[in-house]
Each structure stands twice: as structure tokens, then as C-alpha cells.
Amino acid sequence: MPRFPKAAFLQTAFLAALLLVAVPTPNAAQAQRGDTPVEPGQTFTARVVEVIDGDTFGVRRSAGGEVTIRLHGIDAPETSQPGGRAATQAARQYIGGQNVRVQVEDIGRYGRAVARVEVQGGDLGGMLIRDGHGWYYEQYAPNETEYARLERQARNEGRGLWSRANPIPPWEWRDRTSGPGETSVEDRDCSDFDTRPEAQRFFERHRSDSSGGDPHNLDGDGDGQACESLSGG
To answer: Which of 193, 1, 30 is nearest to 114 (CA)?
Structure first.
């Protein structure tokens, strides 16, 4: 039986250890984001404290701790593409400041909890798709036949983004703009937020971005307080 060279063995072991350090586990990725770790299968109640865009939200659990939610089964337009701001505003109207029930389906590769969100007895993903504010994300939710039906209905009736000729799916938009999917955050200004605390939470979450301490220019006077012209809410 051939002997495995010691140097080669050590090199292989070193590379394996390096990979374990370089690729964080889902819980580690959540911790890096400042989120409270959650696992697939968990269900909890929470209050929505931030609507980042049409399918991504920050919630504060009733039991304590904040979690970033990526909505299961739907891909809403990016904020910078047509229909993106409308999708964000629709999500705010549905769940902004509301108490919701969260059912975690998976943990995304960047640490976000991919989850269903129920508000006042209604399924948020289905509501957004029904009103034409997002695509059914079949690639990641192949069994959501109701979402497929709601999208067909919205298309046929020309609701929301389907009122436009040939709307571009978000995954194609991200490819065109070289965005890395879940890690990308479109540019924001103070008009994208309803209250100063909401803007402050977004500012704190993204102020360590590689482009600088205030990549979205929300803190005009550099005092650490974002969008001071907004209400305290």
C-alpha cells in the first residue's frame, strides 16, 4: 500500500482548516451581520423594524434579538430597477411596524433567514405576488404552486410591474449590474425611509461597507445620526 507523503498530508490538512475558517457556518454568518441566530424549522413572532426592500426585512423577535428576513418564494424588483420602489412601499404598507409570524424555511448563504411571513392572517409572499410586486422564485421554491397561480393572475390582469412591457426579472437585473445577489444593497437616500429610527438602523447596519463609513450618504453632517430631517416615529 503506497504511503501518503507527510508534507502532502500536512498541506491538505492546512487547506481544509483554512476553508473551514474562510467559509462561516450559517450561524456564524448571522452573528457577523449582528443577527440573532435562527435555524430552519423555527417559528416565532416578531415586530418589523426595517423594510429594506420588497423582499428583505429586519424584525425584532418577541423573545429578543433582531433577525434579517429574506422572503421565501418571491424575488421582488431591486430598488434601482423599475417597480423596485413600488414593491418596497407595498411591503411597508403591509408589514411596516406590524407584528408578524415568521416561519424559517432555510438559511441563505449570506446568513439571512429565508422565511415565510404571515401578517394579520395573510401570507406576505402571496400578497406581494398577487398585487404584481414580485416574481414567483420557482428556482428556490419549486413546490409553491399557489404562488405560480397568483403570478399568472397578476400577469393576465396587468397588475403592478406587469403593467410594463417586458419587465426584467431581478435575477437578470443583478447579472447585468454585476450585483452579487443577496449581498448587494442598492443605493438609498432619506426619502426611502419613513422614520428617523428606520434610517438609523439601516445606516448602522451598512456603515462598515467597503466604500466608506457612510456609503449611502445618510449622515450629511457626520454626527453619526442619519436622516435627521425625518420624524422621530
So the answer is: 30
Other CB atoms within 10 A of residue 46 CB: 23
Question: Is-contact 49 59, C-beta < 8 A?
Answer: yes
Given 70, 116, 130, 205, which residue is catalytic?
Answer: 70
Given the residues 112, 174, 196, 205, the one annotated as active site: 112
Residue from 78, 144, 151, 198 carrying the catalytic annotation = 78
Please answer whether residues 76 and 84 qualify as being in contact, where contact means their C-beta atoms are separated by less than 8 angstroms: yes
- Grid cell locating 65: 434579538
Say how many C-beta atoms besides its own lie within 10 A of residue 14's C-beta.
Answer: 10
Q: Grid coordinates standing for 202? A: 439601516
Alpha helices in the chain (DSSP H): 6-22, 26-33, 84-95, 124-130, 145-157, 170-176, 196-206
70 catalytic? Reply is: yes
Amino acid at 197: P
Tell me the pLDDT of the chain (233 aa) as tens digits: 445 455 554 555 544 544 444 444 556 556 555 788 899 999 999 999 999 999 999 999 999 999 999 999 999 999 889 999 999 999 999 999 999 999 999 998 777 899 999 998 999 999 999 999 999 999 889 999 999 999 999 999 999 999 998 999 998 888 776 544 443 455 667 777 767 777 777 776 655 443 345 667 777 777 778 887 777 65
**Does pTM top 0.85 for this prediction?**
no
How far is residue 219 from each of residues 80, 200, 223, 230, measured CA to CA in Å? 21, 9, 7, 12
The Cα–Cα gap between 49 and 65 comes to 12
